[in-house]
Amino acid sequence: MDPLTLTQASARIASGEVSPVELVEAAVARIEQHDGQIGAFSALTVDSAQAEAHRAAEQIARGEVLSPLHGIPIAVKTLIDRAGVESTSSSAVRQGRIADTDATVVSRLEDAGAILIGQTHTHEFAYGVLTPTTRNPWNADYVPGGSSGGSGAAVAAGMALGAIGTDTGGSVRIPSSVCGITGIKPTFGLVPRTGVMQLSPSLDHVGPMARTVSDNALLLQQIAGYDRRDTASTDPRIPDYRSALTGDVDETVIGVPSNFFFDHIDAEVESSFRDAIDLLEQAGARVREVEIPYADQYVGVEFAILASEASEIHRDAIRRVPELYTEDVRQLLEAGEFILATDYIKALKARTMIRDAWQDVFDGLDVVIAPTLPMPAVRAGQMEYRFADGTVDSPINAYVRASAPGNVTGLPAMSVPCGFSTTGLPIGMQIFGRPFDEPTVFRVGHAYEARTDFTQRVPDAITA
Q1: For the chain, how many helices (H) and strands (E)?
Q2: H or E segment to which residue 461 belongs
Q3: Residue 346 is a catalytic residue
Q4: Cis, bond preceding 147 (omega within 30 deg of 0)
């Protein structure tokens, strides 16, 4: 069976064309064939998934359909607890740790009838953008992005029809972009983080990843909503996200940055993005140039907050078992302890200033769009990237530079595929929306997606 999108699979289950058993068996077959090379999964729950697939098939045959996710194989990032399953955060520090209870998002997926097929790798404790344990399904010489790299690779390779990731500095959008799938970082507080290993509590988000915009809408519908156990959780009205998927952007006003996102950028990425703007204009959207405020502040504010909070969370463990951390993460955690409390407070104040300024950015706009990343995936082990203008940057700084505005502001931000490089690597477009206006983000993304074929493409090796 060729990989289906989550939405296609849901429709075929409803029509009786496909059973949950077939979907799970197809996912397991791809895991067995490809995950030895890709390394997306940290733990598999194949036996329970197969049992749940048979149970789901029986329920659906009786007309007991729980949701559009009923019978769909889903993967979950290893930061996210699932009772009875090893949740290690891809770190030796947590090796052998078996979660006692389900994270809220896991409970909501199971209540919806989704079939959880395994835990996916992250860059250790989500503190990085490369996920060294995992490779990119489009070319195994390249990284899958991070920190939700395992989730991105699993979906791109058809080993799961959807996945859950986390996003603190771009960790849903970065792997979505470089793996050629769609992923959304929802508004801060929309999806509860109860049962999710923290990295930076004031920046952490949980979000879905899948092939298409519609897939993401189906997943977000089930995992969004208030949870009193998460102090950041909010209680907005949760709309029917699928109703936003009209394909219509006529008279939609789209802001395109005149600065920041194009300071240093790969020529093929910029070209693909400019083509996407043209397509949206042809579809009836009105495009307006906007200036991104405080452009020189995002990376500094992001890292000052993230590093301070992460080092506090790991303060005891980094003293007790420093040798169990990977070198790059240990160095970041140790460096974070040198950030002064006064600098942390300054960063928090700057974040408030930036959030307020983005309210003005959206004056008269429906969304803001920009390249998700300044370049496609880098090779595994690559420490520097040279842009056409001669600028040399590290992958972590370059990737976070483009995605940090979404975390610092807490605004919803979604990455959708918008092209491929001449070397066959995916390129993503990022769509920012107003707080809790995920429907408009979905609407614009869906309208663009419906006029291209990028989400229909899958890596050659997966169809072989």
Answers
A1: 15, 13
A2: helix 460-463
A3: no
A4: yes
List per-residue pLDDT tens for the chain, 464 residues long. Answer: 578 999 999 999 999 999 999 999 999 999 999 999 999 999 999 999 999 999 999 999 999 999 999 999 999 999 999 999 999 999 999 999 999 999 999 999 999 999 999 999 999 999 999 999 999 999 999 999 999 999 999 999 999 999 999 999 999 999 999 999 999 999 999 999 999 999 999 999 999 999 999 999 999 999 999 999 999 999 999 999 999 999 999 999 999 999 999 999 999 999 999 999 999 999 999 999 999 999 999 999 999 999 999 999 999 999 999 999 999 999 999 999 999 999 999 999 999 999 999 999 999 999 999 999 999 999 999 999 999 889 999 999 999 999 999 999 999 999 999 999 999 999 999 999 999 999 999 999 999 999 999 999 999 867 65
Cα torsion through 312, 313, 315, 318, rounded to 10? -140
Inter-residue contact 313 to 79 (CB < 8 Å): no
Q: Is residue 192 part of a domain?
A: yes
Options 91, 171, 233, 403, the catalytic residue: 171
Which residues are registered as beta bridge partners of 139? 136
What amino acid occupies position 302?
E
Domain residues for the domain of 116 are 6-297+341-463
Does residue 302 sit within a domain?
A: no
The Cα 134–Cα 226 span in angstroms is 33
Residue 211 within any structural domain of the chain = yes
Look up the CATH number of the domain holding residue 17: 3.90.1300.10
CA angle, 233 as apex, 227 and 237 as ends, to 5°?
85
Task: Check residue 196 and report its DSSP letter.
Answer: B
Q: How many domains does the chain have?
A: 1
147 is catalytic: yes
Structure tokens at 207: 């979000």
Within a domain: residue 324?
no
Residue 158 — left, alpha, or beta (φ > 0 → left; ψ -120 to 50 → alpha)?
left
| Short-list 136, 338, 141, 109, CA closest to 225 | 109
Which residue among the candidates 19, 87, 89, 147 is catalytic per the annotation?
147
Q: Which of 19, 77, 91, 107 is catalytic?
A: 77
Whether 349 is catalytic: no
Q: How far is Cα 398 from Cα 372, in angstroms, rounded to an integer?
A: 11
Tokens of residue 68, six digits: 């559009």
Give the separation between CA 26 and CA 37, rounded to whole angstroms. 18
In the beta sheet, which residues pair with residue 393?
A: 385
